[in-house]
Amino acid sequence: MRKKIAAGNWKMNKTMEEGKILASEVVNMVKDELRSDVHVILCPPFIHLTSLHAMLEGHSNIAFGAQNCSNHASGAYTGEISAPMLKSNGEDYVILGHSERREYFGETDSLLAEKIDIALENGLTPIYCCGEPLAVRERNEQTDHVQRQVEDGLFHLSDEDFGKIVIAYEPIWAIGTGKTASADQAQEMHATIRKQITGQYGEETANNTSILYGGSVKPGNAEELFSCMDVDGGLIGGASLKSRDFVDIAKAF
Ligand code: PEP
């Protein structure tokens, strides 16, 4: 059965002190309020990861993830962080292919395929982001766009490796803009992705793949989005910076 997931992408926000406060609030609220079958993943900036792990003792439905990793295992790549480093630090997840990395850092599907491979080789679960820009949606070409990202980034994987992937559909026009895809738009694309996975890897794998929605998810719209048959949770940016909002979103399943 696929997991229900609320993942918080803090992006480049929060000083060390602010991060500790936010994480401890989330941990306490999750402990007191959240159903145990909902998985919470916190993805703070790299430098926060080590100190925030200490807060997690005994909370089995909270895990940590990074927001990126290198496509190389080690070497002369100044400023990069590798998948083996993340795994050795206790991370379980890594977000790959976020639209901000595709846009501002020129990440392509072929580079992302390499990052997916090295993440998996090192026991990390990739959260692979896909999604169309506004101009593509206005031309009604979003299905081709997203299917190409899924195919080029992921379909080189073996059945076994694909079974470890989490996908996040994030229409770029809805990220950080306050505009949310309607529940119908989200469901339509999630069902399309699941059908595409069925064609490549079979029904069982497709039914076991968690597909998250991302793009201005808030406490007020999470319930409607998460009630869609093929929406298995959310990748949450802005609202993950407020503990109350983030946990309320996680409670919306
Ligand atoms: C994101 O960055 O992945 C995201 C979905 O951001 P926001 O929730 O702020 O739209």
What does this structure look like?
- With 253 residues, this protein is an alpha/beta fold.
- It has a single domain (4-250), classed as Alpha-Beta Barrel (TIM Barrel).
- Helices cover 44% and strands 15% of the residues.
- The protein has twelve helices and eight strands.
- It is globular.
- 45% of the residues are buried.
- Phosphoenolpyruvate binds at residues 9, 170, 175-176, 214-217, 235-239.
Question: What topology does this entry show?
Answer:
Elements lengths: L3 E6 L6 H18 L4 E6 L5 H5 L8 E5 L16 H6 L4 E4 L2 H6 L4 H13 L3 E6 L3 H5 L3 H13 L4 H4 L3 E4 L13 H19 L1 H6 L2 E4 L4 H8 L6 E4 L6 H8 L3
Parallel strand pairs: 1-2, 1-8, 2-3, 3-4, 4-5, 5-6, 6-7, 7-8
Helix pairs in contact: 1-12, 5-7, 7-9, 11-12
What percent of residues adopt helix (DSSP H or I)? 40-55%
List cofactors, ions and other ligands.
phosphoenolpyruvate
Order the strands across the largest sheet as they lie in space.
Answer: 1-2-3-4-5-6-7-8
Average pLDDT confidence is: 96
Please trace the helix and strand order, writing H or E for each element. EHEHEHEHHEHHHEHHEHEH
Shape: globular
The CATH class is identified as Alpha Beta
pLDDT < 50 stretches: none
CATH homology superfamily: Aldolase class I
User: How far apart are the first and last residues' alpha carbons, in Å?
Assistant: 15 Å
Q: Let me know the largest β-sheet.
A: 8 strands, parallel, barrel
CATH architecture: Alpha-Beta Barrel
